[in-house]
Design goal:
alpha/beta; Rossmann fold; extended; 8-stranded mixed beta sheet; Immunoglobulin-like; 7-stranded mixed beta sheet; about 775 residues; about 20% helix; 16 helices
Length: about 775
Amino acid sequence: MPVLGVALALGVLMFFLYRRELRFHTGAARWLLPLLRSLAVVLAVLCLAGPILRHIDTYRQLGRVVLVADASASMSFSDDTPQAGKPPAPAPAPALPAGSVASSNAGTRFDRMETALLDPNHSMVKKLAEKHDVELFALRGYRAERLWWHRQEGSDVSGDLPHHFEFKPEATATNLDQPLRDALGPNPAGTALVILTDGQHNGPGSPEEMAAGLRDSGIPVFTVGYGSELPPPDLAILNVQMPEAVFAEDRAEGTLVISDTLPAGLGASMNVLQGSKVLWQQTFTTTGAGERRFDFSFPVRDLVGDPKQSLRTLTARVDVNGVNASQDKIANNNSQTLSLHLLSRKRRVLLLDGRPRWETRYIHNHFDRDERWDVVAAFDTFTRGQGGQVAEAFPKTKDDLMNFDLIILGDLRPDALSEEQQSQLVEFVEKRGGGLIFIDGRRNHLQAWQSTKAATLIPVKWKEQGSPAAALDYSLTEQGQTMEALRLSDSPSTNPNLWTRLPKPFWVSPAEPLPDAAVLAKLGNNTVEPLPALVWRRFGAGSVVWLGTDELWRWRYEVADQHHQRFWMQVATWVAAPPFMVENDRLSLGTDRLRYQEGDTAELRVRLRTATGTTVTEGSPRAHVFRNGLEIASLELAPDPSHGGVFRAITGTLPAGDYQLSVSEGSAPAHDLRLGFRVESQANKEWSQLTLNRPLLEGMARVSQGRFLREGDISQLPDLLQQLDRMETRTTETKLWHSWWWFGAVMLLLTLEWILRKVWRLV
């Protein structure tokens, strides 16, 4: 205000002084010229106050609502009418009065959902689109398909809202994790996710972890549950718990898990068959008690098939006997196809340590309990030669050592092994392609290995500084986050956060990686600079991993083996010499897993040899993938970064079926050797559980700060989503004193005055 007063005073003073000079003139010149000069002075003085022009606009920020409709096979079930055999195609639901919702027993679950969303008389999608940006998706197995959208108050719309879905609920799996992330997109801020489903998640990933991650991004999840919480009368196979592989001289043992909700007292039987050959059979009486378990066992020698192939296909089946068979109304869930591999030998691991530390004792137990591994363990008794446990356990010949796949070397003094044995360790990794894991320790024996014949194996060098004595936090590096072997969570996106929450160690060896090594995990805190905790390096045909702490056993706190065993089994599988299921003198073929589910990807592994037996390390072989007898893919094989002389390729997502893999080199025809593997269908899982999974849906809504609704309460959605509909005020400021417009106004006034003075001949 003082500046404004000064400006007006100077402007008035300028006006009268100017008029005094023009006292002998009459007309417009007497008052117009002083006025123009005065205004220019006022504007010039006002610049001292720094005038700012504020412009306030209010915008209505529409919330984005992503609606996902479950189109899996279980949604075609009618909760009030049992279905026999394959479910019939959904029938159009009758129109309901405006404002009402479908009753809980009107047609199939999919019918009722379709009516609630799309029926013209009370379309929930249409109602939500009046106040929000809406996108409608269909969840069809492992993908979410966008069907319709209405954005920016209708300026961006995909067309008229359909009155019905143009597909049937036939997806053989329900995945309530990754497809929902895909539907939200990379920038989901200001979004609410609404899922209409029966909650029968049977795919990879964790819906609860996904929902918790969305909560951190401010995205609530609203779940609308369809289906009855009371099971229909049915006899179904829920699961077959059985090893992926059995050795040729063993027995195949497992557990058949069934759901029995039929009336009590009916005779039934269950079988495990190979084709028409019965391998195991048991009769029982129904109880209607729900989940039941039956153990089975049969000798592997009873299986038939090509001895050059490891794969055998089996079928588990459960049926009601005799005249009561018609009471089992749902036949889709009475059988399940299984794949079983016959292996010639177990994978072998040699565990050597300076003393039985907690870490190595737990590792020994993990391998000892795993039927796929054969473990030999020994601890240092500080005795050389005969009588020393380590020397006695170490293979007597080089050929015996080469029969192992993995060696775990703890905090062991170097002279526990002879120089010849140390040299054999190098050859085991470099030539055999075996895996080696170092576990450092407080006694610092591993540092002494730097002056031995095995020094070239060590991927780190130690610092002179002491080890930090404080609680340390784990963190995965960027490369470590991409490693499947380091995934401790079912959801890839939450895995890095899980590592930061693992129980903390209090010691890590001070070391730094060699130039050709990669740090996969670190340990540090706010006061301790992060130190390498997990370092990997490719060495010849094999791989070496150095673990900088021996306190991973702390991960067992309150969760037992959940994280610790998973970590060691995954890392061992990754680092060890890769297994091959079929091979001859020129070619070895294998996959990363023995059992695949529909929607999985497969890693194909190949090792080639020349006519003289030398491993081929360079070339461009191709993998040919056949499904049900027809070639569906030809993939270029690339060198495996973890194992020399091994080529690999990763397939796309695989549908269910029987597969074969063959390999060709250049223009030469494909090798005769083929590997068979099977991708199992999820269809049975869709029909094995037909009740509403309310605990899962309530959990997803609760952890994301959303709401769970039954289908009859879907009319509450618009009110619940009002929180996304908000007003946003935007203020823009223009510094007039710093603006060309302000300067231009002053110059315009002065220029106009000068022009008028010229016109009136005052100059």
